[in-house]
Design brief:
This protein has one domain (2-33, 84-189). Helices cover 72% and strands 0% of the residues. The chain has helices at 2-30, 37-47, 81-116, 122-137, 141-167, 171-189.
Length: 191
């Protein structure tokens, strides 16, 4: 009985994570500063070669006393259009993979679970949900990027553990579930 409840609890945690991820995705897409992937590719194609300075122009001369006064600014990935496009792509992939995983769990694994009561690692689904909630609370780029990376890895772990569990089932029942989970994992890794 505990096993059958654990799969449904894991799915419920993943559904909460998916809802949170979709809200984050919508918020980021609404942000006017977010370029679309098409904008980035068009801008790259239209940029052309860098302009050469005209004859007689050289680098700006340093004024006396300014040497050493300039404080180097750290590179800020939130200012880079390409970095934002990559984050959008990874976020979209995590949303898509989570939705696919939930669908496989509900349609294929749930009936098998009722029949065979295989173990489910509830802790990973709770961690995934918590990471997604943390992403929603802290929208700053460095923290968001770290959380997104952690969510990506956690989702991969969930899928791999489910595949490992399915491999321990009798051959006649594991084929479809393993194939479906491997397809989700392949889509997840195909970044």
């Amino acid at each position: 009985m505990a096993y059958s409840l654990s799969l449904q609890a894991a799915i419920n945690h993943q559904i909460v994570a998916l809802q949170t991820l979709r809200v984050l995705q919508e918020q980021r897409d609404r942000d006017l500063g977010q370029p679309t992937l098409e904008d980035v590719s068009v801008a790259t194609e239209q940029a052309g070669p860098p302009e050469q300075p005209e004859k007689g122009e050289g680098p700006a001369e340093e004024k006396p006393g300014e040497e050493g006064n300039a404080v180097p600014q750290p590179w800020d990935p939130s200012q880079c259009s390409l970095a934002r496009a990559v984050v959008r792509t990874v976020l979209a992939r995590v949303v898509q993979t989570t939705a696919q995983l939930i669908q496989v769990e509900q349609t294929i694994l749930a009936p098998l679970h009722q029949e065979l009561n295989f173990p489910v690692y509830l802790k990973d689904s709770i961690e995934f949900r918590n990471i997604c909630c943390h992403m929603a609370q802290h929208g700053e780029e460095p923290i968001f990027d770290q959380d997104l990376n952690a969510a990506y890895k956690c989702l991969k772990t969930i899928i791999k553990k489910l595949i490992h569990t399915m491999l321990s089932l009798p051959a006649d029942v594991r084929a479809l579930s393993c194939m479906a989970l491997r397809q989700v994992l392949q889509n997840h890794l195909d970044l």
